[in-house]
Amino acid sequence: MDSKLNVLRLPAEQLYSNEIEALKAVDKDARPAGWQLSPKAVLTYITGGRAGDMAITPKYIGHTRLVEIAIATLLTDRALLLIGEPGTAKSWLSENLTAAIHGDSSKVIQGTAGTSEEQIRYSWNYAMLLAHGPSDAALIRSPIYRAMETGGIARFEEISRCASEVQDALISILSEKTISIPELGKEVSAARGFSVIATANTRDRGVNEMSAALKRRFNILVLPSPADLESEVEIVRKRISELAASYELGAEIPEEDTMRKVVTIFRELRSGMTLDSKEKVKPPGSVISTAEAISLLTNSMALAASFGSGSVQDVDVAAGLQGAIVKDDEKDAIVWKEYLENVMKKRGSEWRGLYHACREMNP
User: What pLDDT is attached to residue 209?
Assistant: First the structure.
């Protein structure tokens, strides 16, 4: 059996390896140092198109110009910072840019309150250090260190979740493109092609605000939420189809009408206004992003497959909506009840089944 079939989630360079190879075969444009594809081919990989007889699926559905700017940034000596609301595909875009450019998206630092400076630079195998002293063999290279050595791209997820002094360890690396190792009396210089793609969540502003000095080392791109209902439905449809194939859920893909209802609810609660702009609604305190809608519908498929008919019904969707919108805040329950009575209930027969299923979940 192919070992890939036993992996829950493949990295992008493996998941879309056929598309990358097809693009390599037809790519006649100049490739920058260390890149496996030209900038135009990377754009095709991200936004979709064709490579000979193969259709290239879009990985990011949004403003093409933003993707062009991101790719152009990685051609220069500046790092790239992707900022946006939760669910705006920051990590997904970061991973796929790295997969297309270098074929290895695994060099990742996950920013948390516990991330240390050593995880950005290097640390030591302390058993070897105590036994033999500082040596290259005892050195544990960080993802950024390894990217510098190979001229690759390191990814720094949720950078604003790290303490400010940890973030600032990046300043000299991004400025000088070197890491100094005084214990070994040497300095590591970045090979051509090295860069960093960081992501930051706008909901985390004020947690650990990035310093002005660090921001100057990045070209900052703000990724917007999907511009309209149709764009968001398209994103949801595409990702659900991919996830359903990966998870082998054994349920039918939710009907178009079901996806549109979920996306409509999320967009209205996010914006505080119905889509026709006729009525204001109270937004919940929880994050209700596109990613949350995808997760909700995928979970509805799992419910339908395991405990239903195999076809997603209103009761399956209602269970997901309850969990997505009403977290641990009592105010969210009130907001959701008001939305049900003031908006959903008035939408007529097409929404009646979902309304009643949601009311049973939220008495």
Answer: 80
